[in-house]
Here is the input.
Amino acid sequence: MKPTAKDFLLIDSVSAFTEHFGFPKPTHPLLAVIDLTPTTHRPPPGLMLRQLYIISLKKNLKGKLRYGQLAYDYSEGVLAFYAPGQLCTAPADVDTSELEGWMLVFHPDLLHRHPLGKKIGSYNFFSYQVHEALHLSAHEEAVLDGLLHGLRAEVAQPIDGFSHEVIASQLEVLLNYSNRFYHRQFLTRRPAAHDLLSRFEELLAAYFAQPGEQPLPTVQHFADALHVSPAYLGDMLRSLTGQTTQQHIHNQLIERAKQLLLSTSLSVSETAFRLGFEYPPYFSRLFKSKTGLTPAAFRFSAQ
Here is the structure.
């Protein structure tokens, strides 16, 4: 059952966020740079809906934080990204006595009238789950700390006609560096990525090997089976293979279509239905775009 408005606390402003968690009052209405230090204060447990963007680097957090349907350990320092509208919980058993790191919280209104407002949706890590967080090297952490220092200094200044542009521009630089570091992670953490690739390929092959008609598989289907988000799966596949998840699905689908066309007497329409297509013409167009031949021409050419 989906939670209703009565089931969670809505936090829709930066000031409400800092007040709820016991952080200092923000000096800017739309953005706060928060230093995470050991504290005995904990917010009351419960489900929260935060209409804010949050970037957090947490270290030495004892216990587990829930995100979505799973819980993850923050004993190692990781950089996590949250988009507005994501539900999360604040459990009562988290020990913050040795907590280190920082948190950057900003309201979507900060991006209005700035190009970043349209661009921010292209940063896939805001849709990643916590176990897909960014593991920073010492150098990368120092780079982000420097950028955060600049943001902290700017929001401490009195607001003038240039404040909005300067803050949004500095934030965009931080996000661009984060994007660079995320793509580095896909390369340096290749063993884990290759394991995910292998499991994806196994699931893909098994799906199309099933007898009888099956619905067309979706990217979400495989992401759920691998316990990752569609964005993370797509970025991982592109970094290793140069192709998107959907392209991998189409490639496997076309190979299965070739097998059916050459080894059965199914008509082109029956082949399309067997593969999960509701409309055979769409299957024919996809097949021709991938092979240069219509299904009928491919079958004839192999005789």
